[in-house]
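Data card: per-record layout.
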Amino acid sequence: MFEGRRILVVVPARGGSKGVKLKNLRQIHGVPLVVMAADVVRQLDFVDRAVVSTDHEAIAETCESAGLAAPFRRPPELSGDRIADWDVLHQALQTMEAQDGVSYDIVVMLQPTSPSRTPAHVRDTVAMLVKGGFDSVWTVSETDSKAHPLKQLTVGAAGELDYYDPAGAQIIARQQLTPVYHRNGIAYAITRDCLEGLKSIKGAKSGALVIEGDVINIDTEFDLRLAELLLPAPDWPGRKP
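The structure for this 241-residue chain is written out next.
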């Protein structure tokens, strides 16, 4: 528990990723991404229950061997690439509350494709949710000014160039840009009332925990190579030298 709140951690890890096949089982420094997530969970002493939500037996077995429970399988209708996070978390929460016979106050989502995660990131996210009275807290990273919405362009069918936002025509220097942020997948903390009552992972009062420094998100083979270069190689459980 965290200050009297019962915590359920859900690691979403389906098997049908298209860009990188079986992405959640790919390894960085010899450690599968789902095992890296499981190792972070193992270091969180306030977590009451932690599970993987998967439709894939090899992912389930890998998680179980790393100490992350796989007590159910995600149904086919929740295993496609257009399924919202809410659907996955709602199904996991309902399933685990029925199995465990308890009600969880906070659901924490840890996406295995964000291997930059540390236990402190997760702890700080939950603490911000509870102490700030938020419905939800997402970790975010500041977006590089080169990718700012006001610097984006569109290309039409005939090759014609235009601004994505007409206001971009007024931007001369990056100092004119108001910083924008993007979700980085390190941690989401959501109250049960928000998830079940509002049917959303972003409530009426949502907080942002800004993560400083480089954050890797695994979407491509290049991201995996980059992660090998930027992330240290500690002696994680299950590591294959």
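Known properties of this structure: The mean pLDDT is 94. Residues 138 and 188 are 5 Å apart (CA to CA).

See the next section for split statistics.
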